[in-house]
Amino acid sequence: QAFFCLLFCIPWGSSCPPSCQCTERAGAKAVLCSSRHLEEIPEDIPRDVVFLKLDANSITRIPSNAFRHLSHLEEIDLSRNAIEKIDRAAFKGVAAGLRTLDLSSNRIRSIPKEALLALNAKLRLANNPWHCECALQEVLWEARLDPDSVQDITCHTAPREEYVGKPLLQVLDAGVNFCSVRQRTMDVAMFITMFGWFAMVIVYVICYVRHNREDACKHGDYLKSPPSAQAHAE
Fold first, then answer.
1. Which residue, of 56, 58, 109, 111, is most buried by count of CB atoms within 10 Å of its CB?
2. CA atoms within 13 A on the CB side of 50
3. C-alpha–C-alpha distance, residues 108 and 130, integer Å
4. What confidence tens digit (pLDDT) does each residue in 78-133 have?
5. What does the alpha-carbon distance between residue 205 and residue 200 come to, in Å, rounded to a whole number?
6. Measured distance CA(108)–CA(61) in Å, rounded
């Protein structure tokens, strides 16, 4: 925070969230909201902000379109909060220009891969209680992670106890593929569903054939009976 205060030392007169400090230098505008006991992202952040620091607060969720109106954003620091949930469209509108996104030291267990894979920003995801799963694996493989923090993405929970407490990168390097496990589970579920539908069709066909056979037998017995019996039946 001290670095930002030195770098952006000239206050600027446009609207600023009451709990934050807004500064500017060489045309780059920063909003500094560190350690302000915030429980959600302020709604009145100026549209032309370039650097946004929201670290060391009590924010629990990043909702959809949280930064959509901030098209000039290049850096967002959300580290050291209490974030547990990130919506799929949380960073919609800022994906193209964002260079750095810090989500380290929160309470994030899982995250929709769509929220991060659309970003070109360097991501910091360390020191969260991650549940190691396919979505997190895909983020690790496809997103731009800060190389200095990758080793600190650790499995807090996992499908198998032997992975708990280990860095996700180490688990993947050992040959584990969480996505293939999920695919096998989906294949089994699909097979069971198809088998159930097939069994229902077979039962329906058997019942239909039996019903038609009984009707045919009754009709045959009727035709074989004497005319007097037929007249009596009618």
1. 111
2. 10
3. 6
4. 999 999 999 999 999 998 899 999 999 999 999 999 999 889 999 999 999 999 99
5. 9
6. 10
Cα gap 52→37, rounded to integer Å:
16
Q: At what angle do helices 178-224 and 134-142 cross, to 10 degrees?
A: 130
> What does the pLDDT read at residue 8?
45
Place of tokens 């920003």: 121
The SS3 assignment for 179 reads: helix
Q: Mind listing the pLDDT tens digit for each residue in 178-227?
A: 998 544 434 434 444 554 555 576 666 676 667 676 666 665 565 556 66
Pairing of strands 75-77, 51-53: parallel
CA–CA gap between residue 122 and residue 200 (Å, rounded): 52
Q: What is the pTM of this model?
A: 0.73
CA proximity to 121, closest of 196, 207, 205, 52: 52
Read off the amino acid at residue 177: N
**DSSP string across 34-85:** TTS--SS--S---TT-SEEE--SS---EE-TTTTTT-TT--EEE--SS---E
Question: pLDDT digit string (tens) for 23-63?
Answer: 997 789 999 999 999 999 998 999 999 999 999 999 999 99
- Whether pLDDT at 229 is above 60: no
Round the CA-based radius of gyration of the chain to a whole number and report it: 31
For the chain, how are helix, strand and coil distributed in percent, rounded to 5?
35, 15, 50
